[in-house]
Design a protein that fits this description.
- The longest helix has 33 residues.
- Helix 1 crosses helix 3 and helix 2 crosses helix 3.
- The chain has seven helices and no strands.
- It is an all-alpha fold.
- Among the domains are: 60 residues, lambda repressor-like DNA-binding domains (434 Repressor (Amino-terminal Domain)), CATH 1.10.260; 34 residues.
Length: 156
């Protein structure tokens, strides 16, 4: 197959008329006809123009057995993606909640201590209670010592 035949076949496959191809290549329609009939050959500059118009390399127009190169396998590249961690949106709500909890705690503490003041004992009442408790502990300790003494005497 000649260059002319390849130009004609490619032009017809792409649905381009001789007149349109002549306008795109900036030559006359008669020049296109001469190329296709083999009466003339396109120059290197015209071959480059035809290559751009048809979207083929110049080799496809010149070489009879030209086949398009195989498509390379797509390369899959894994790109690490950083996912931004969203910040808490509203610090005011947390501050307000903390203030409410603190206020409730203070009010409950005040009420608790107010009740204890009503049940307040005088210092002399506390001293007498401490003395009574101490005497009771001593008496129970004394009884324990007496029991232990009796056990030791009997068995030792």
């Amino acid at each position: 197959m000649t260059i002319g035949h390849r130009i004609r076949d490619t032009r017809i496959k792409q649905g381009i008329s001789q007149e349109t191809l002549a306008e795109l290549a900036a030559v006359s329609r008669q020049t296109i006809s001469k190329w296709e009939n083999g009466a003339a050959y396109p120059s290197g500059e015209n071959l480059a123009a035809l290559s751009g118009i048809f979207g083929l390399p110049v080799e496809a127009l010149i070489n009879d057995g030209w086949t398009p190169p195989p498509e390379p396998e797509p390369v899959i590249v894994e790109v690490p993606v950083e996912v931004p961690v969203p910040r808490p949106r509203n610090y005011r709500l947390g501050a307000l909640l903390a203030a409410v909890v603190l206020t409730v705690g203070i009010l409950m503490g005040a009420l608790f201590f107010q009740e204890q003041r009503e049940n307040f004992m005088s210092e002399s009442e506390m001293e007498s209670e401490v003395i009574d408790t101490t005497i009771q502990m001593l008496l129970s300790t004394r009884k324990t010592i007496n029991i232990l003494t009796l056990i030791c005497q009997k068995y030792f």
